Amino acid sequence: MIDFILPLFGRFHPILVHLPIGILAFGIILVFLSGKDESKHFSSIKIAFLLGGIAAVLSSISGFLQYQYEGYTWETVQFHFILGWCTALTAFWLFYETNKLNSFPSYFKIKSAGLFGLLLFTGHLGGNITHGEEYLIEVLPSEIQGALGYELEPEKQLIIPEQGWEELAYFEQVVQPILNQNCKSCHNPKNKKGDLDLTSYQVLMEGGEDGTVMTAGNAKSSPLFSRLILPKEDEDHMPPKEKKQPLKEEIELIKAWIDLGGTTDSKLGEAKITTETLEPFFYKEVKPFYPVTEVEAASESSISDLKEAGFFAETVAEESNWLMISCINFQSFSDSDWFNLKPVQNQIVYLDLTGTQVSNQILDSLGTLPNLTVLKLNETAIDGSSLEKLEANKQLKHLYLNKTKIDIGRIGSLNNHPSLEKVFAFDTPAAETENPGKFSFYLEIGKYQLPALPTDTIVY
Amino acid sequence: MKQVEKLIQELNQQKLERQTRRHFLMDCVSKMGGLALAPLMFGCDLGGSKSGSSGLNLSERDLNPLAPLPPPFAGKAKSIIYLHMAGAPSQLELFDFKPELAKYHNQPCPESLLEGRKFAFIRGVPNLLGPQANFAQHGESGAWVSDFLPHFSKVVDEVAFLKAVHTDQFNHGPAQLFMQTGSPRLGRPSLGSWVTYGLGTENQNLPGFVVLTSGGKTPDAGKSVWGSGFLPSVYQGVQCRSKGDPVLYLKDPDGMSRDMKKNLVTAINDVNKEEFNAYGDPEILARINQYEMAYRMQIEVPEVMNINEEPEYIHELYGTKPGAESFANNCLLARKLVEKGVRFVQLYDWGWDTHGTDHDGSIDMGLRNKCREIDRPMSALLLDLKQRGLLEDTLVVWGGEFGRTPMQENREGKTQSFLGRDHHGDAFTMWMAGGGIKKGASYGITDDFGFSGIGEQVSVHDIHATILHLMGFDHEKFTYDFQGRPFRLTDVEGELIRKIVA
């Protein structure tokens, strides 16, 4: 008959906790308002500590009951629970002390301040349990989050192997990672929005406050799927419209899993899905175009010196340390201007010397650029007599020699270059060669034509 | 706080724009007297200068709005050439092969296609119009291209087709605005403005965003299609003429020598520098910079806009005739501009609105003539970029503002004497090539009549998202604050078309 009393009292915890906070804070404020000799607020303070202590005890008891009946783990609540009792005891201790005092010396104020701190911290821990540990952090700008050491790492992206994906456990290896990435932040054991937890198959099957979320074999009547495809403006749309939305392929995979029967023992290959759906999740070995090695950033002053001298000088991307240099507005650049580039020789990955006054000598200097990936020597006096020196540039991938005096033999001297992928030699003696032959790199000599057609002259 | 400051700045700007000479005179009546009185009465300091430069922290961008900036991530493309066929070419005669439609030629269009539909000119039940071109598959990719584009069919392996693009606009002006600015209404910055705002430009002696037009008319939407919208106006497209002076008023006036011009610019800049020392307004520095840039452009622009010096085989390749205003000349200029480090080159070719109201606007004759005008030049552009290695980091985009109906147009319910198609935005073809694009790809499926997309449809926003991605931007993060909120090119939509990205 009275079985419900205890859990009900437990559920009053969220209300009761505000009593000790309010009452004790009021008492502490009065302590600080009192002068050294004055005892104007004496009786009020006494009663505040007494009532505050009693309220803290009631809160702690109700909190304990909630912990007992609502399925929180001890790990989650332990510090909140212990500090709650500490708060109660401290309140009583200060009440006891006030009985012996006529005034409030500073040591008492320090103790009161301590109680206040305890109160705040206990309350904060309680808040963390109800709202989640990231409740306050989430709304901070990401720079401050980082400074506080809270890198709120998103869950890892789902990755599916291109070979043998049929054998993946559909729930464990596909659906659960999708749920983790898109749903977990609001549907986990600590933070069960709508009383729904989606962190494992068992709890998912328990459903939420509106009942089950998955009807095996019928995706359309399973909120786990149907709420994802509601219009974004719909109140019931999940995830809420201000949160990151799942990919349409992820939604498709969830649908296919439910339609397949929504069990834990099915394999991905059993579902009616095509590789098209899986494509976004295939692991792609992204080979970055520029070297993967790390270099330290070129100093700001060295970059502004370059710009001052007339170079185009920018990093390849905002966060990158690799530099792109072009002489597009510095056509008078010659071998003797090389000193400008020395301070950034490790950072240069792209160098455009098109149309400059450089000679064959420049190849010696170019060898000092360990990370050079793209080199443009179009329209220069380079004749290729020492082109093999570019073998020193072990990262060089694209070499532009358009409109130079280079011939096919000289290009051939690069045949054993370790990294070279493409050479452009349009409008050079090399382009005149009848049969240029095969090289370890792709050679583009152009000379494209679009032969005239009879239709070119027919006017309808 | 920054947003509030920006709003106040916008408000002040608007107030200033409404100030007229009369306001000034009115103000003078009351305030000049007071002003004169003030020093008489107190001999006091009226504000004055507070050492202009000391507290200023000016970035390179404040001084030179076109200074280059690195993209958020390393993009595959550095520059863009956008070929816009104003008037909307018929996808059904060029790329979207529909043999089924031929079978139903001249039969009434099924009611189901017309239900709840609005067309620009079609009324009642029109007849279907079968493809008026012969199609074949070309290249290793097996792309379908009609005999309207015989030269282009040889370069299809460089290209990725989008065959189910859709737009929600069916009138030229709004549709062109939508295609170029991401909104069918006026006021948004164009794609080229966004890109030059985000990246600046490599060659400081040339504009960052150049517009070239051909076909005798500019786009229906007017110059707003290359406008800068709410972005600073320095990011709008600079329209260059391919005939006569490339940029108006850039040539030295008669009797004015270069040296004299140089002296003039130096003198103006000296005055401006004095002004800056007195008031410390960074706008003044930007102005100084622009005078200098205009001076430098005087040398470089005529040079880069001159195609006379190009070798004969290049003229043969493109089919160019120096001195004319043609799409071919513009294609060659586009290559020259990109080669010289211009960020964004926008071409408009007018004359694709094939309604069938006259000979030039007929699907079987006028369209063929238009196709012949672009076929060689655009194919040549791809080949020329390729042989120079420019296709590695130049993105080429081709398309109209919408597509055309599979039905014969029946303007005012009458039978027309020429074959023509009405405006249609449900499904049409665009292509992209170059920087970061998967060669020989084809994405998008349309129904048997080519009326609607039935798979792999992409929106205009998706295309913008993809273009920005290739330039190194996340379209969701690339924003500009205006009227109290951040704006995006893709508004609240757009998804990267992964299938055509290499």
UniProtKB/TrEMBL annotation, chain A:
Membrane as UniProt keyword: yes
Keyword Membrane belongs to the record: yes
InterPro entries (alphabetical): Cyt_c_Planctomycete-type, LRR_dom_sf
Lineage, top ranks: Bacteria, Pseudomonadati, Bacteroidota, Cytophagia, Cytophagales
The name this protein goes by in its record: Cytochrome C Planctomycete-type domain-containing protein
Location of the Cytochrome C Planctomycete-type domain: 183-242
Keywords: Membrane, Transmembrane, Transmembrane helix
PANTHER family: CYCLOINULO-OLIGOSACCHARIDE FRUCTANOTRANSFERASE-RELATED, F-BOX DOMAIN-CONTAINING PROTEIN
Membrane-crossing segments per the record: 15-35, 47-65, 77-96, 108-127
SUPFAM superfamilies linked: RNI-like
TrEMBL record, chain B:
Record-linked Pfam families: DUF1501
Coiled-coil zones: none
Top-level division of the source organism's lineage: Bacteria
The protein's name in its UniProt record: DUF1501 domain-containing protein
